[in-house]
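Re: beginner question about structure tokens

> Can someone show what the tokenized structure looks like for a real chain? I only ever see the sequence side.

Sure, here's an example I had lying around. Input first:
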Amino acid sequence: MKMKFYLIVLSLLAVCLWGTGDVRAQSASRSMTVTGKVVDQNGAAVTGASVVVVGTTKGTTTGADGAFSLTGVASDARLAVNFIGYKTQTVEVGGRTSFNIVLVEEATAVDEVVVVGYGQVKKSDLTGSVASVKAEKLTDIPANSIDGLLQGRVAGVQVVNSSQDPGASSTVRIRGNSSLNGSNAPLVVIDGFPWGDAGDLKQINPQDIVSMEVLKDASASAIYGSRGANGVILITTRKAQENVTRITLRQQTTVSGFSSELNLWRDPVLMAMLSNESSINAGLTPTYIGATNANGVYYPSIAELQTTWTTNTRWDDLVFRPTPVSNNTTVQVQSSNDRTMFQASANYYLDNGMYIEDTYRKYGGNFSVEHKLLDNLRMKASANITSNKRHNNGGLAYWRNPIFPVYDDNGDYWLYGAQDYSHPLALTNLQKNDSKGLDIISFASVNWDVLPCLNVMAQFNYKHGEQITDKYFPKKYSETGVFNDGYGSIDNWKDDNIVFEAYATFDRTFAEKHRLTVMGGYSYENYQSRSSSLAAKGFINESLGNENLAAGDSETYSIGNGSYKTELVSALTRINYTFDNRFLFTFTARADGSSKFGSNNKWAFFPSGAFSWKMHEERFIRNLNVFDVLKIRASYGISGNQGISAYQTLSRYGQHKYFNGGKWVTAIGPGYQSGYTGQDGIYALWSGIPNKGLKWETTAQVDLGLDMSFFGNRLNVTFDWYDKRTSDLLRERNIAPSSGYDKMWVNDGEIRNRGIELTIDGVAFQNRDWRVGGTFVFSRNRNKVLSLGNAVQTGLKTDLRTGMQYEYYGNQSEQFRAYTNILAVGQPMYVFYGYRTDGIVQSLAEGLSAGLSGDDAQPGEFKYVDIYDGDGLETVDENDMCIIGDPNPDWMASLGIDVSWRRFDFSIFFNGVFGNDVLNTKRFDQPSNMPMRWTADNPTNSYPRLNANRQTKLSDWWVEDGSFVRIQTMTLGYSIPFSKKDAARKIRLYVSADNLYTFTGFEGYDPEVGMTGIYSGGYPRLRKWTFGADFTF
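And the corresponding structure tokens:
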């Protein structure tokens, strides 16, 4: 007790003495005028830098020569000097009147602070594979979501932006695909909040993002346990800077257009001639013969088209905007003093698509505040609110016949027969496909420095999302409406996600050489969602569309709702030990308990370990005078994947309507029934047999890395080799119908990803006026399916020629009447499986000798190859199918070059994907390729003859090389000089181009397609020109 009493007295005495000294110092201070100059590390003047007297509102900005002057400054005051891209410098006045202040760039490649899971470390102290991207390099191109802009920026990260529609999401993969049916998307963590899968981060304004860290190996991602198997993207949003008041306005206006010509029928005569030829070759009556068909539509003859026919409709001119103009406006305000930092932003984003009725709008607001309650106790709070609207009505301008008029004689939309679901303008104007969304993200945290070596952090996150979708398809002009006599629906969805985390970090150095950092924490996550849907068909009156679903046929009403809830509880730790700033060891572990799995497998443990050696700290390396940094890294870890829906371990009921006894009946129950008697149909009710033994997917990964820096850290090289294996794959297995079910979730199979990554970045030249730098990124990943489980239990098929076991993936192609992709043991995921071809049959004798028969043996048909001899038959059948392509790229590379000269800045970014195959389903039904068909007068070996009745087989003829190199972005900017009397600190004007040009041999519009490699047409990739202005006050 006495000891406690003495400590309290001494503490109070110290406080009193400190307060007395402060008063005396204030009384002794005097006012004075201070002047100075602010320069960068090269001695160049920094124009527009903020110079503020700490703790006051008094401040100024530097002029064009970097000079500043302040009056009435206390002799014991402190000056804070700040400028974007540089570290804030704080200097003591100390009675001096003149200063020369040198600002240092925000970070170098070595001492840059990198965000990792539940902490931060210097880049030089990393033991795992972590890549960092500064968002300021990406945001000159307006984007709905920041993750799409990562394309080509990070080694090992594959980003596919296959859709050009407004508000479209991206597909993101880190070190390949690792799951068959579970999620393959990396986890996104925003300011410590586990957000969800990457690919659609439209709720976060890219202008509010400061940096992104990509955790690639298990040592870095295992701290996120069951959600870290696919890698992790950590996003840090913008916060106010200490003792800085700033207002920023960023305005971007974007003009878009097609990057290539539309492939449409412009010549109706040629189109009609080819159509007739196709019918004649199939033994059918030609269409264009000056007669009316069964639908009551008159088709002119070729002679009429050449002479008297006047209708030649350019459907694209009716439904496409010639040059859509989009807008992106962001206003940011930040202010701070010694105790409180405040930041707020507002954003309006408008993306007008190419279709005249295709628009996406987004309104967003962000607010954050940080306050020092005590010198060692800080509180943070933030909120982000986003509202979005999508009006999505795209026409079908690519295949509407140009001889058809737009309107009939009464001024109504012209119909092809009694009903018509291919009129582009009618679809665009009459069908309804609207959605509205609202997202609220809030965050609150307390950070307590208990001791100089002990910090405690607790944070609470809450996310709310909701969306409503309205659809109506009219009974005359849309396919869905025609077959359902009008169809309308309203779908509602909302979710709530709560995450609470608390962790303590101990960081202390012992005996000058031993640094120990220990983090331990707890995490709890609760996710809930609810959905409901209403639908009707058979509308008597369409005037109100889906706003009056009661106008539909009551017997066909469809009402549904669902509820979904999951919980995740975790304990986690990380231990970092550094000896003599040379040897670094990291150990992480996380135990996750998930409600998605049964009682036997709710918990899983995910450990990892890593080692690195800073060889440049060794004398024998320093004496070489070659390396600024030479560090080797090695890591091994295990992470998991729980990316399936809830309740898969439980027996679940299904429901369906079927027609029985002259009326619709709703059936509810487990399992399924099948059969058909007369006009009464009994429909499937499958809904999942329980599997209480279901457990996590497990990914084990080895990573070996090398970091090097040369020439005063002006050249930096990072190399990684990795081997990632995922086992116990979560997948649905077909089971015997006698069980009463058709599928069940199981753990079965194994996938391997192995590859190398290389990043080279540096500054090639720099002086007072010039700076030339660049970054080169290279990735090579080899994906391989090692196992698909027991062949008998899983119902695997066997390739009789090679013995390869496989199963179909995805859905059947209507065009080829077959599955296009398979999962095969020993092969990459999603390979194409079909027939080989050897050109085109030139004569009937040649076709018969090749093992073909019937129409397949006719001249002008594909010459399929008989490659299987095991059946003893010289015929082409399904046993001759083989792997005909691989949609996975062999390697990816990118090159970014940045040049600045005085106030001008220029950057260009090339991105390339190489060795991937694309299945081009549009290779032979386009105006550009149909005229090159085989004929007796043109016996080409490249294209088949026209044949309206051809039973097209999936073959290698449809597979093309999808390699490309794209000038992805190019930007030219200029920063306007101003004097210290001006209100603005910085003004930058720039013009930026996105998708400037693509070098490729692919015949379609664009080779960048989804992960399965299927190209289905669409419209050309958009080229975008952005005119931007950034104002900082």
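Each token stands for a local structural state, so reading them left to right follows the chain. The first strand starts at residue 31 and ends at 39.
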